[in-house]
Write a structure and sequence with these properties.
This protein has about 260 residues and is α+β, with helices and mostly antiparallel strands. The protein has a single domain, classed as Beta-lactamase (3-Layer(aba) Sandwich), CATH 3.40.710. The strands form 2 sheets. An 8-stranded mixed sheet has the order 1-2-4-3-10-9-8-7.
């Protein structure tokens, strides 16, 4: 099922901080999961207790992409930490303007906005936070390439902010273990917001993302004290393909015995 990665795998991950892991394992027998759907993609899990990655398609796993709505996780953390948002239940008022998604056309709490991936709400949050504060916190959190650019409403949607699936998994593992350099309250609130479901004693935390070209599903699974972060990234040009992010991700999590 699994094979220890050789020099090629290590070199593919070396530029993004994964080479120091005690183990990097290549997932050989799941290569057909994306091929079956005729999709190019990658999947990564990271076990922080063992400092071990499991990687499907190492080259893509080491490639940075815009985070899209997966950035709602660090965005919420930053906003809560600096007081730009009070808590998960702060209400954001709908301004009556047409939205790209009909579900966004109503007042929403932070919790609801994360669940609905409400872009306008997070653009309001971004204006409250400001670019300089983002630059400070992206560096402090060691998030991707740390670049906020000059458009506070678009930098996570169109760049220049970019992050690799490996970096996503590392970042989310630190959140799962509440080891980010910020208060426990902020981390606990966001953890609760992205809690999705529980089955057989395993709890799933996750967030989707879509840039219009790239789809994400990233989060972590808790089973007792064990926490395993993951990130799925795939080509996705049509919104109709959105459910595949989760269905393929769950299939792969089951395949490696995580969920």
């Amino acid at each position: 099922m699994l094979a220890l990665g050789g020099c090629g795998l290590a070199s593919a991950l070396a530029g993004i901080g994964a080479a120091s892991a005690s183990e990097t394992i290549k997932l050989n027998d799941a290569d057909d999961v994306f091929a079956r759907e005729q999709i190019s993609g990658t999947f990564v899990t990271y076990d922080p207790a063992e400092d071990r990655f499991v990687v499907l398609n190492a080259e893509r796993a080491a490639t940075r992409f815009v985070p899209a709505s997966t950035f709602k996780i660090p965005n919420s953390l930053i906003a809560l930490e600096i007081g730009a948002v009070k808590d998960a239940h702060e209400m954001f008022r709908y301004d009556g303007k047409p939205r790209a998604v009909a579900a966004w056309q109503k007042d929403m709490t932070l919790l609801e906005a994360v669940t609905a991936s409400n872009v306008p709400v997070f653009q309001e949050i971004a204006r409250r936070v400001g670019l300089e504060t983002y630059r400070t916190w992206l560096a402090r959190l060691d998030y991707g390439n740390r670049e906020a650019g000059d458009n506070v409403e678009r930098f996570w949607l169109a760049g220049p902010l970019m992050i690799s699936p490996v970096e996503q998994a590392r970042f989310l593992a630190r959140l799962a273990e509440q080891r980010l350099p910020m208060g426990a309250r902020s981390q606990t609130i966001v953890r609760d917001i992205v809690r999705i479901e529980e089955k057989s004693g395993r709890v799933l935390f996750a967030k989707t993302g879509w840039s219009g070209k790239i789809g994400w599903w990233a989060g972590w699974v808790e089973q007792g004290a064990r926490k395993t972060a993951f990130a799925l990234n795939m080509d996705m040009s049509r919104i109709e393909e959105a459910p595949k992010r989760i269905s393929l991700g769950k299939e792969l999590l089951t395949h490696v015995g995580v969920y």
